[in-house]
Amino acid sequence: MFSFVARSANLSSVTVAATQSVANGSKALSPAVSINIERVLVPPPAQKLTTNSLTAGLPINPIRASVSIGGPSQVRFAHTDVSIPDFSAYRRSNLKDSSADNKSSAPSRQGFSYLIVGSGAVGGAYAAKTVVGEFVGSMSASADVLALAKIEVKLNDIPEGKNVTFKWRGKPLFIRHRTAEEIDTESKVDMSTLRDPQLDSDRAQRPEWLVLLGVCTHLGCVPIANSGEFGGYYCPCHGSHYDASGRIRKGPAPLNLEIPIHTFVDENTLVVG
Ligand code: FES
Q: Which of 238, 249, 250, 257 to mutate to test the pocket of ligand 1 (most atoms within 8 A of CB)?
């Protein structure tokens, strides 16, 4: 018997067809043919051991052990065969007894600790002192500046009536060996005639020696000694006249020539600075 059912072309995908062969007396059935279909097995994709995949394998819930008939079980081995290195050669002899309490060995251990801390403190203090000393020393004047901070002058090398110029702290230094006539003249000057009134006795520690900075108080030129209308110094830049005491007498300069700090160490030695 043969039957065929086809409802419509649109339903061809769900069409059901069936055949059925039934033997009758006139025609035998065809022998059955067996077809061996070889199954193709596709290997599963290889598991990638990444951080995520390994993490996903970790247990989410707390680990519990359960035993049941037919349940999974496992055997774990304790690695008691691992040999622990012997560090006793590195241990102090009084600490090798593992049954002794720590208080009995405290003095020896603390002594060593105090020794280390004390040594470190001494070393640190010495290093700090060196660093601070170097830092402060770096801010002080250099050796060449210190060498020029003071100048010593032998006075018997300067004849009377002469003015000698030295270089001191980068500036001209005038040392004048005044004559008796100059001393007499300068000591009798009327203070009311001076622009910057100052007694000659206040400017010269010893009357015969006058110590001045050779810098004009107008704009800083170097005056010329034994020149000018008053026999002292003359500044050619703008015409300032100073007397033999270094006091301004005429011209644009507003002040007397500056007198540096100086000391007469003995009869023939002068130290300026
Ligand atoms: S700088 Fe000396 S008078 Fe001007």
A: 238
Q: Whose CA is nearest to atom 3 of ligand 1?
A: 238
Q: Which of 79, 177, 218, 238 is catalytic?
A: 238
Architecture of domain 151-272: 3-layer Sandwich (2.102)
Q: What is the pLDDT of residues 169-204, one digit of tens each?
A: 888 999 999 999 999 999 999 999 999 999 999 999
> What are the tens digits of pLDDT across the range 119-163?
999 999 999 999 999 999 888 877 777 667 888 999 998 999 999
How confident is residue 6, by pLDDT bands cut at 50, 70 and 90?
very low
In angstroms, the Cα distances linking 92 to 109, 113, 166, 186 are 10, 14, 75, 91
241 part of the active site: no
Q: Enumerate the domain spans of the chain.
A: 151-272
Q: Ligand 1 centre and the CA of 236: distance in Å?
A: 7
pTM beyond 0.85, yes or no: no
One-letter amino acid at 167 equals K
Lining residues, ligand 1, CB within 6 Å: 216, 218-221, 235, 237-238, 240, 251-253
* C-alpha span between 45 and 49 (Å, rounded): 12
Which pairing describes strands 262-266 and 17-19: parallel, antiparallel, or unpaired? unpaired
Ranges assigned E (strand) in the chain: 2-4, 17-19, 151-154, 163-168, 171-177, 209-213, 224-225, 231-235, 240-243, 248-250, 262-266, 269-272
- Per DSSP, 192 falls in state G
Evaluate whether 148 touches 179 at the Cβ level (below 8 Å): no
